[in-house]
UniProtKB/TrEMBL annotation:
Transmembrane segments: 101-119
Record-given protein name: DUF4974 domain-containing protein
Pfam families: FecR, FecR_C
Alphabetized UniProt keyword annotations: Membrane, Transmembrane, Transmembrane helix
Residue ranges annotated for the FecR protein domain, each copy included: 131-222
GO molecular function: sigma factor antagonist activity
Segments forming domain Protein FecR C-terminal: 267-333
InterPro entries referenced in this protein's UniProt entry, alphabetically: FecR, FecR_C, Ferrdict_sens_TM
Length: 340
């Protein structure tokens, strides 16, 4: 299917499903890519549908290490065979009336039909529940499946009221304690990064103004996938973390210091470089922390704090590291001779 410019507004769902197949197989034209992106951004249910299809494409590849290099139809055939043979995530639910899309991705639509249909069987947009927090607010929410999500400040969570397939959209930061259900993976979309679990606890940070998405695992096992160009998904276990960089669409493992500080209200630094300490303080207190001298960046700080004020942490840094602290509203500058 190649688009005619004058027919964009008359496209039906099958057309967009076909575009998703082209996108995943990397056979989409520049014009088609623009049309697909506009449709995805039009409403949350479109975005969720697209992200779930893309996530399944990547996750199946992650489990078998077989690149999709045979072209669109052959690649989708491979995906279908993986699911039919019992690969992870392969619960098949019959679906009717999607002949055009089924040529490319019957397995994907079958898997996610229960939740991510763009319109319900009555022709109405899918209904979404939403929770949000403002500045300084935190809140915990119990989902229909028994999972508990704790939202950090300035965050928003959306999920379909028909929670048959466990999938949500996150903006901001949240800690997830997911109820285990091996038949229904739990999927979170956040700024282009997709995190998939069966039952575990982990943290996701994906604020709109930041250029990264950070996933840190407290227990269990999760799989994180980025955009199509981000490479293979990353599997994380307890104590591990990954960062997805939006500008470069690069996804990889990365050590993240104090990822759960906002929830535990504690900070712990064990021989942590000052450049990392500055980043943690900026994230935790919502301020800008700058090192005036590059020689300070590699100096290592040791300290542990329970529900500390910013002033308490800065006083400890100034005393132990021999630095000078200058504070101007929400901007802090640390200067000194370094540790060489």
């Amino acid at each position: 299917m190649h688009l005619q410019t004058g027919n964009r507004e008359n496209m039906n769902l099958d057309n967009y499903h076909d575009l998703i197949g082209r996108y995943l197989a990397d056979e989409i034209s520049a014009e088609e890519r623009v049309v697909l992106r506009k449709w995805v951004e039009a409403q949350p249910s479109n975005q969720a549908f697209f992200e779930e299809a893309r996530q399944l494409w990547q996750i199946t590849a992650a489990y078998e290490d077989e690149p999709f290099s045979e072209g669109r139809q052959a690649a989708w055939a491979k995906l279908q065979s993986r699911i039919d043979s019992g690969s992870p995530g392969g619960r098949i639910v019959p679906m009717q009336g999607r002949r055009n899309w089924l040529r490319y991705a019957a397995a994907v639509l079958a898997l996610i039909a229960g939740t991510w249909l763009v319109v319900s069987e009555w022709g109405q947009p899918a209904a979404y529940a939403e929770f949000a927090t403002g500045p300084g607010e935190r809140s915990a929410h119990l989902l229909p499946d028994g999972s508990v999500i704790t939202l950090n400040e300035n965050s928003r969570l959306q999920y379909p009221e028909r929670f048959q397939e466990r999938a949500i959209i996150l903006e901001g930061e949240a800690y997830f304690d997911v109820a285990r259900d091996e038949r229904r993976p739990f999927v979170i979309q956040a700024k282009g990064a997709t995190t998939t679990v069966l039952g575990t606890s982990f943290n996701i940070r994906a604020y709109p103004e930041e250029e990264t998405v950070t996933v840190a695992v407290a227990s269990g096992r999760v799989v994180v996938a980025g955009e199509q160009t981000a490479g293979a998904p990353v599997t994380l276990t307890a104590g591990e973390s990954a960062i997805y960089e939006l500008p470069t669409q690069r996804l990889g493992r990365s050590e993240v210091s104090n990822p759960l500080a906002w929830k535990s209200r504690s900070l712990a630094f064990e021989q942590v470089k000052m450049e990392t300490v500055a980043q943690v303080l900026g994230r935790y207190y919502g301020v800008s922390v700058r090192l005036a001298d590059e020689s300070l960046a590699s100096c290592r700080f040791v300290g542990a704090f329970e529900d500390p004020t910013l002033e308490e942490v800065l006083d400890a840094i100034a005393f132990t590291m021999g630095v000078t602290v200058e504070q101007d509203k929400d901007s802090i500058t640390l200067s000194g001779l370094g540790c060489e």
